């Protein structure tokens, strides 16, 4: 199915104002995310920008950007508005939402998510990775996915939560905030009202679950670093510094828990 990747980005971040334009290794963070999404090779890539400065940075790097209303309430609403601008004729059946603050995103994660959607009857697909650090299992900032696995690498997401779940022995799964939607599913999702559990857990994807939409999950090995704070930004700069990358390449391939 023809796919398009849309990357919502805005400057008005509360914890790290201006973060899409934060410099990482000589490039704006949003440009690095655009490059990673392009490397996935799943289809056209465009940045859904809330601010002209973001669009200018992307186009200067050779990318595509579309300006959207700065007051839109969520990234999902932003990509929906951008989709109407960049693909008004509905040529793309799959819409991938890649967050603009994931500069270490593995392109394979994007490919795996799109493949999971195409291989399923689900409305939405999203990746998860096994939690290796027990501290993360109890960290409310790490979103957990409760998944009914099909015996392979994919399954059906039953719930998402900030609590430690499910209870008992066995692996726990960390949700990675990247989504592939069937186009009609995105249209339905943004038309739904904010749901009770979405408001309680502060997790937008629960709106889809409560409305009876199906969400496929796919296992991936790497967890991208999400940049939300100044400390996250410094970590991303260290991970993506040219000398750090060269040293890693000269020694060994990244481990499964590496963000690169």
CATH 2nd-level architecture = Alpha-Beta Complex
CATH topology: Spore Coat Polysaccharide Biosynthesis Protein SpsA, Chain A
What percentage of amino acids are in beta strands?
Answer: 15-25%
Overall number of domains: 1
Q: Structural class, please?
A: alpha/beta
Name the CATH homologous superfamily: Spore Coat Polysaccharide Biosynthesis Protein SpsA, Chain A
Q: Going across the major beta sheet, what is the strand order?
A: 7-10-8-9-12
How does the major sheet shape up? 5 strands, mixed, barrel
Q: What's the N-to-C terminus distance?
A: 28 Å
CATH class label: Alpha Beta
Count of helical stretches:
10
What's the overall average pLDDT, rounded?
Answer: 92
What is the total tally of β strands? 12
Rg (CA only): 18 Å
The coarse overall form would be globular
Question: What's the helix-strand series?
Answer: EEEHEHEHEHEHEEEEHHHEHH
Can you describe this structure?
The protein contains ten helices and twelve strands. With 260 residues, the protein is of the alpha/beta class. It has one domain (3-231): Spore Coat Polysaccharide Biosynthesis Protein SpsA, Chain A, CATH 3.90.550. Strands 7-10-8-9-12 form a five-stranded mixed barrel. Strands 2-3 form a two-stranded antiparallel sheet.
Provide the fold topology.
Elements: E1 3-9, E2 23-24, E3 27-28, H1 29-40, E4 43-49, H2 52-60, E5 65-67, H3 75-86, E6 94-98, H4 107-118, E7 124-130, H5 134-137, E8 144-149, E9 154-161, E10 173-175, E11 178-182, H6 183-191, H7 196-201, H8 205-210, E12 215-219, H9 230-240, H10 242-251
Parallel strand pairs: 1-4, 1-6, 4-5, 7-12
Antiparallel strand pairs: 2-3, 6-11, 7-10, 7-11, 8-9, 8-10, 9-12
Helix pairs in contact: 1-4
